[in-house]
Specification:
The structure holds 2 protein chains of 2 kinds.
Chain A lengths: L1 H28 L5 H6 L5 H10 L6 H15 L12 H36 L4 H15 L2 H12 L22 H34 L3 H8 L4 H13 L1 H15 L3 H7 L4 H10 L3 H29 L7
Helix pairs in contact in A: 1-14, 5-6, 5-8, 6-8, 7-8, 7-12, 8-10, 9-10, 11-14, 12-13, 13-14
Chain B lengths: L3 H5 L58 E5 L15 H10 L4 E3 L7 E3 L7 E2 L5 E5 L21 H11 L9 H4 L16 E5 L2 E5 L5 H6 L11 H4 L9 H4 L10 E7 L3 E6 L16 E5 L4 H10 L3 E3 L5 H10 L4 E3 L4 E4 L11 H10 L2 H8 L5 E2 L33 H10 L11 E7 L4 H14 L3 E7 L1 H9 L2 H4 L4 E2 L2 E3 L6 H9 L18 H10 L5 H17 L4 E6 L2 E3 L4 E2 L2 E2 L4 E2 L5 E2 L1
Parallel strand pairs in B: 1-10, 1-11, 15-16, 15-17
Antiparallel strand pairs in B: 2-3, 4-5, 5-7, 6-7, 8-9, 9-10, 12-20, 13-18, 13-19, 14-19, 21-24, 22-23
The chains are: A mainly alpha, B alpha+beta.
């Protein structure tokens, strides 16, 4: 197991290096805004723009710029500074990570708590009104665009602008260390919005998997051996049906830790997603590079955790 | 866009920028100003503009104290007074720093002394500008340091100009408005062209007789003092601390930046070193907090429903509609800059003035204005100087020069055909010759570009049309001269003047001298010797009436030569909560934080 994890970690770093190189190449190969010109402003002379370009190292050969960047990342965990805000990218990401983790963790809890029981229940009550209502509702939740859902939820339930003022609204986020109560209150609505689509998708996925698994021969054998229905369903059915969900879960967590742009934008939660969006808008390469690496790191890490978890969930899986 | 303003805005991105969010105004289905007064909030009639809208000027008896919160979608471009060059940036900078001169909110045309003591003195030969400084203006800082409480001197203003040429600051407009002796070679070191005979006198020696214009540009934030002893070491670094950590600046304004989280929020608190005896700003509010990255649809509703709020940048169309119909006395519209279609005057077919006039005649400018939000947020333009800039009346006022190719805002195919025939197209239409046009994929610039494309096609040309991301469009194409030479039309441009003067409005966009390899603000590539000479002459005129007359004539010349096609004078909206007394700095078409108050 240790050898397997070591190999995967090594590959993780290779992958991150590749991702960073590709980001660099894309930024330079495709038409994108000139950071020096954007920074210099409207009437800046060509000489001034050239000086700024030199100051930012943008006129160095591409490989030199990449080498300088990677050296900073590897040796000092330094991601450079934003061309636009002049703020350190590492500081920006670190300051925004708690908000993104808060968003992801809370939504994750909600969507798992909701989706797993509903998925199992629907599978066990297949074809009943309960199943139809649950799966129909899930389809609606999947179909609703997050941006729209977030706005509607604010217009309906936010304390300041909602028709039924129940939850804290937009612009109310505070850090958990500043005020845990307000932190929780400010995130309740974003959690529900973010979790809605995921919960619906997971419930449908689990239901489909479980329905299929419950039709397998070994389930019939288990029942024939006299096991209780509860044991058959949970020990043999759900355990097998949930394995593909863990795969998706790992990817989703990784993606969300890389930033949930729309939800963060509507609720004005200062997370990594919004930072990435702004960076792309302003051709801010250091910020783009930093967020891409962060997102890639979380996705790769989540995949590693999922692969390790596989063996515990499915005895047929072996590390190799 | 293809809107130079928005292009330069950062996410706002922008320059003297701004109306990024103006995209949100598209399709605002409202009539022109007028109608009955609305529900309201107890605002005095004196504070109402025509149509019942908020006048947004200072009113007697404004209350002192309290906290104002602004909600905005865009972040700031810069924080360093040596770098700031955008509408939002100015809102903060002019509340926290004081320059030589400024504009009172209700008067965008007459500069008043700020840290200066009296008006600038321009020498008879127009090459020297002398300014006296007030005594008793002191620096405030968040953390006590050697500069805290120290008096501002002329040397600090001199250093502000010197550091503007340092690439770690990189001021964009210094070379345009301040042709100071030695500036062409300076990179942050001493400037021989600025002398300080004593602690309260500064003298600018210019390389050409340009004092009439330079003296008017002394309202720019570059004139805000920066003490070398305090900022000098940081100015050698990249990033520059004055920009990266603006809370460490030495402040001269009524407020200080106490906290700045890029793209999250900024907080202003009172500057204890500010002395109201030296300043006419009332500074009613105790604190000002600006939350960034707020969804404009949400913030519009919050400002409508909650107390103590104002918009930071352009409100969403839904919010404008709601305020304009349900709370007229909480929304104000302020004239700002212009918008126009820039046609390449150096490339066929638009190198022919008659083809340019034909396009002007074919263009449905009324539809373009509607695409931007309609008559509530703009006015169909007939020339390039907007109503708030001296020279507007001299250029023809609302009617313009009376040219037939601009007479019908909805377009006139007959007139268009007439000019096509004059250009040699005997049928009145082209024969499918190719025209290359780029535009922004961001609404409403996308829609205005499409209207332009249709007008070109109606003239018989085959349009090769491509939409691009706004930042890319400008920094890679529409401001890069080598690329512009391959393009016939780069979307639609726009300009907000740096200060209320026709020079600041027309030179950058239509002078041949502005055609630089990169960051070219003249996408028409107009380089007309007569117009260039007239601009050079106009820049030297100091008498306000003569100056307005000269620049009005230049504006007419540009229209006569169809250097571009004007289609809109912007009237961007601003909104406030019911308990907020909004005051607009008309020169910047945005809130003047040092004059706003709670009710």
């Amino acid at each position: 197991v240790v050898g397997y994890i070591a190999r995967r970690v090594a590959w993780m770093f290779v992958l991150l290096a590749l991702v960073s190189a590709v980001t660099f190449l894309i930024f330079y190969a495709l038409p994108s805004a000139d950071p020096a010109a954007l920074r210099a402003g409207r009437q800046a002379s060509p000489e001034l723009i050239a000086q700024i370009r030199t100051r930012l190292g943008l006129d160095d050969p591409l490989y030199v710029q990449y080498w300088t960047y990677m050296k900073g990342v590897v040796l000092h965990f330094d991601f450079g500074f934003s061309f636009q805000t002049s703020q350190g990218v590492r500081e920006a990401l670190v300051s925004r990570l708690p908000a993104t983790i808060s968003m992801t963790a809370g939504a994750l809890v909600i969507w798992l708590v909701v989706s797993l029981p509903l998925g199992v229940l629907s599978a066990l009550r297949r074809g009943t009104p309960l199943d139809r209502i649950t799966m129909g509702g899930a389809m609606l939740a999947i179909s609703a665009p997050v941006y729209w859902l977030a706005l509607v939820s604010l217009y309906l339930f936010a304390k300041d602008i909602g028709a039924f003022p129940i939850f804290d609204g937009a612009n109310t986020y505070v850090g958990i260390t500043d005020d845990a109560g307000r932190w929780f209150g400010s995130l309740l609505l974003p959690w529900l919005v973010l979790a809605a689509g995921f919960a619906a998708f997971y419930a449908r996925l689990l239901r489909a998997n479980l329905v299929e698994v419950l039709g397998e021969d070994y389930i019939r054998t288990a029942r024939a051996k006299g096991l209780t229905e509860r044991r058959v369903v949970w020990r043999h059915g759900v355990r097998a049906a949930i394995t593909p969900i863990v795969t998706v879960l790992g990817l989703d967590i990784g993606v969300l830790l890389g930033g949930s742009i729309l939800t963060e934008s509507v609720f004005n939660i200062p997370g990594i997603g919004r930072y990435a969006f702004d960076a792309i808008q302003s051709a801010d390469l250091p910020a783009i590079q930093g967020t891409v690496l962060f997102a890639a790191f979380f996705i790769v890490l989540a995949n590693l955790v999922v692969d390790i978890a596989y063996a515990f969930l499915d005895p047929r899986v072996r590390y190799s | 866009m293809t809107d130079l303003r928005a292009a330069n805005a950062r996410r706002q991105r922008p320059l003297r920028l701004v109306l990024l969010g103006a995209g949100a105004l598209a399709a605002l289905a409202l009539g022109a100003c007028g109608g009955s007064s609305s529900s309201s909030t107890g605002t005095s009639s004196a504070s109402k503009a025509p149509g019942g809208f908020l006048a947004a000027t200072p009113v007697p008896g404004q209350k002192r104290g309290g906290a104002l919160k602004l909600l905005g979608a865009e972040g700031f471009s810069h924080m360093d007074p040596g770098q700031v060059y955008g509408q939002l940036d100015y809102m903060i900078t002019f509340a926290t720093q004081r320059g030589l001169y400024y504009f009172k909110p209700e008067d965008p045309q007459n500069q008043v002394p700020d840290i200066a003591d009296g008006q600038p003195v321009v020498s008879a030969d127009n090459t020297t500008v002398t300014v006296k400084l007030k005594s008793g203006i002191r620096y405030g800082t968040n953390t006590t340091s050697s500069i805290t409480g120290k008096e501002v001197t002329a040397a600090d203003v001199k250093y502000a100009f010197e550091r503007g040429l340092n690439p770690s600051v990189g001021n964009g407009y210094e070379a345009v408005y301040f042709p100071i002796v030695g500036a062409d070679k300076a990179k942050g070191g001493p400037l021989a062209g600025i002398t300080t005979p004593d602690a309260h006198t500064i003298v600018f020696k210019l390389t050409k007789p340009f004092g009439a214009t330079t003296s008017r540009a002394l309202v720019m934030p570059l004139t805000m003092p920066v003490p070398k002893s305090y900022a000098g070491a940081g100015d050698q670094k990249t990033p520059n601390p004055y920009e990266a950590k603006p809370e460490t600046q030495a402040f001269t304004g009524p407020y200080m930046i106490s906290d700045y989280q890029p793209d999250k929020s900024i907080t202003l608190v009172r500057n204890p070193q500010w002395d109201s005896k030296t300043d006419s700003r009332p500074a009613y509010l105790d604190t000002i907090q600006w939350t960034l990255n707020v969804d404009p649809n949400v913030s519009g509703r919050q400002i409508f429903a909650s107390p103590g709020l104002a918009n930071g940048d352009t409100p969403a169309a839904g919010a404008v509609k709601r305020f304009a119909t349900q709370a007229k006395d909480r929304i104000t519209f302020t004239a700002s800059g212009n918008r126009y279609v820039a046609v390449n005057t150096q490339r066929k077919p638009f190198s022919d003035v008659n083809v340019r006039k034909a396009l002007a005649a074919a263009l449905d400018r009324r539809a373009m204005l509607l695409a931007r939000g309609g008559s509530l947020v703009g006015q169909v333009a007939t020339h390039f100087l907007p109503p708030t800039i001296p020279g507007y009346a001299e250029a023809g006022g609302d009617k313009g020069i009376g040219a037939d190719y601009l007479a019908n805002p909805a377009g006139d195919p007959v007139v268009a055909a007439k000019y096509m025939k004059l250009a040699g197209f005997t049928s009145g239409k082209a024969n499918g010759e190719k025209v290359v046009m780029l535009g922004s994929n961001d609404s409403p610039a996308k829609e205005t570009a499409e209207i332009t494309r249709d007008a070109i096609a109606s003239l018989g040309f085959k349009v090769q049309f491509r939409l691009l991301d706004q930042g890319t469009l400008y920094s890679k194409y529409c401001q890069v001269t080598s690329e512009l030479k391959k393009i016939d039309i780069c979307g639609a441009a726009g300009w907000i003047p740096d200060f209320s003067d026709p020079f600041a409005m027309l030179v950058a966009t239509f002078s041949g001298d502005s055609i630089t390899p990169t960051n070219n603000p003249n996408p028409s590539l107009l380089n007309d010797p007569q117009i260039n000479a007239a601009m050079d002459k106009g820049a030297r005129i100091n008498d306000p009436a003569e100056r307005a007359k000269a620049w009005g004539a230049i504006d007419r010349q540009i229209v006569e030569k169809a250097g571009a096609i004007p289609f809109d004078y912007d009237l961007p909206p601003n909104i406030v909560s019911s308990d907020v007394q909004g005051v607009i700095a008309k020169w910047n078409a945005s809130w003047d934080l040092a004059y706003m108050s709670l009710k």
